[in-house]
Design brief:
about 260 residues, single chain, alpha+beta, three-stranded antiparallel sheet
Length: about 260
């Protein structure tokens, strides 16, 4: 687990590479989709944190015209993230948007609290960080990505991340500007899809680095990651967020004991 390559961010605590034991476990092949999350909401009546707060963070280029009428500032140090009134899992781009046609895309605008509520309903759990990394590696030892060390394979993109100049130009060489449907890219050696890019995924572990003490680990990077700004789509890369945080690139996948 971890990395000694020196290509990450020191405060993220990727290194040193070390041996970690995990007990047998099962993990979902994909992130939870809008279709699956809707089944949970319809059955339980659950209201997400973003819906209770009345807003969530949306990438600037995706905000709907109606959403732009209710912008509540931007994320510190990241002006491309706008706090948009009405943005939530069911209105991912702000008021006037919906998930119709996005049923097989990963659900976003989901906080840790929301993910845990889904897990309770579905009788599953979030993966631990070591479980997540073990599964994401797909049986490859100390490789940069789930498929090896090269980002592209003969000119073919194997994950959904930003191409071009971040944040001004996305050439969409991988075929997507935002989220991609699950199973859009090849699975790794363990049959897991989109463990690099697409959406950040919550893990059960608390973040132990110098950030808010209640922060939890997120893994995998997202469609907004780019080597010039956030090359955290590598398998060893890690980040964190607070339990009630949500945004247009934050989702989760589930696990259970083996």
């Amino acid at each position: 687990m971890g990395c000694d390559r020196g290509e990450g961010y020191p405060l993220d605590g990727e290194g040193p590479a070390r041996s970690v034991d995990v007990e047998p476990f099962a993990i979902a092949a994909t992130a939870v989709t809008n279709r699956e999350f809707r089944a949970f909401v319809d059955d339980s009546g659950y209201v997400t944190d973003a819906e209770r707060f009345g807003w969530s963070f949306v990438f600037d280029a995706f905000v709907t015209p109606q959403g732009r009428k209710d912008v509540r500032g931007h994320a510190g140090g990241a002006p491309w993230w706008l706090g948009v009134g009405g943005a939530s899992w069911s209105q991912p781009f702000g008021a006037g948007s919906s998930v119709v046609g996005l049923e097989e895309h990963p659900v976003v605008h989901v906080s840790l609290n929301d993910a845990l509520a889904f897990c309770t309903w579905a009788r599953v759990r979030l993966p631990s960080e070591p479980e997540w990394e073990y599964a994401a590696r797909g049986g490859l030892d100390r490789r940069r990505y789930p498929w090896g060390d090269e980002l592209e394979a003969n000119g073919t993109w194997l994950c959904n991340i930003w191409q071009g100049t971040f944040p001004s130009e996305n050439t969409e060489d991988d075929g997507y500007s935002g989220t991609a449907p699950v199973r859009s890219f090849p699975a790794n050696g363990f049959g897991l899809y989109e463990v690099s890019g697409n959406v950040w995924e919550w893990c059960a572990d608390r973040w132990e680095r110098p950030r808010p003490k209640e922060a939890h680990v997120t893994r995998g990077g997202s469609y907004l990651c780019h080597e010039s700004y956030c090359n955290r789509y590598r398998v060893a890369a890690r980040s964190s967020n607070t339990p009630d945080s949500s945004g247009g690139n934050l989702g989760f996948r589930v696990a259970r004991d083996g």
